[in-house]
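Pinned message: reference record for Fibroblast growth factor
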Amino acid sequence: IVRLIKKYSCVCFHIELLCFICFCFMFVAEENVDFRIHVENQTRARDDVSRKQLRLYQLYSRTSGKHIQVLGRRISAKGEDGDKYAQLLVETDTFGSQVRIKGRETDFYLCMNRKGKLVGKPDGTSKECVFIEKVLENNYTALMSAKYSGWYVGFTKKGRPRKGPKTRENQQDVHFMKRYPKGQVELQKPFKYTTVTKRTRRIRPTNPS
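Predicted structure (tokens):
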């Protein structure tokens, strides 16, 4: 009987040890999970359920020292601060950072065609008019085409558009800074949380006897 008890105890110990090793392995595996692929897939997916966020701002070009203008079908980066053609309406298109950019004055969308040329279009439903906002380490923003991966919105020092195939993320030509127009505030109001507390029981005054 003593031998059976010892043998049983030994088996139980090994089972517990095996369970412990499996638990540690699962914990380490969960710690090393790379969620970047999941986030990237969610960013590319269309979001037709959530409310679209609409923002109004200007995009200051690092190279030209001016702002992007949507002049109908023509695009440039020669706008002064407060220029009516430099005021852009930016609408979120997906769960992540994909946006559609429209000139407030002309109602034309900023788009990139199959040749990599920046053009304005009256209809922004095409994927050529969708861009991925990428915040860079230097705090500038780059806009990569959602349809043509690796092609960016970029301008020369004279404010002329660069073709997508000739752009790279590390080039200053594709670096922009968001600026609100003079005297303008953000269209999208910040979300306010409402704190709900338990209703306190109302105590009625008692009549003195």
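Pinned by admin. Summary line: Strands lie at 54-61, 67-71, 74-79, 88-92, 98-103, 109-112, 118-121, 130-135, 141-145, 176-179.
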